[in-house]
């Protein structure tokens, strides 16, 4: 299973989920789906926006958890 780990990056950057939503142009609902692990997929364009806003690499956001 692939997880998206926003919590630590947001904490490290001193950024709230609300601030991230504004920067990347996403709704809080969609970011919450990613944050809580309920997302089934993520678009590369969304991943790019998140990486740009958080100044990180995709590997900083995505984690593999064996089932």
Automatic annotation (TrEMBL):
Domain of life assignment: Bacteria
Stretches of the chain forming a coiled coil according to its record: none
InterPro entries registered for this protein in UniProt: Cro/C1-type_HTH, Lambda_DNA-bd_dom_sf
Listed GO MF terms: DNA binding
Pfam families xrefs: HTH_26
Signal sequence region: none
Chain ranges of the HTH cro/C1-type domain: 6-61
UniProt name for this protein: HTH cro/C1-type domain-containing protein
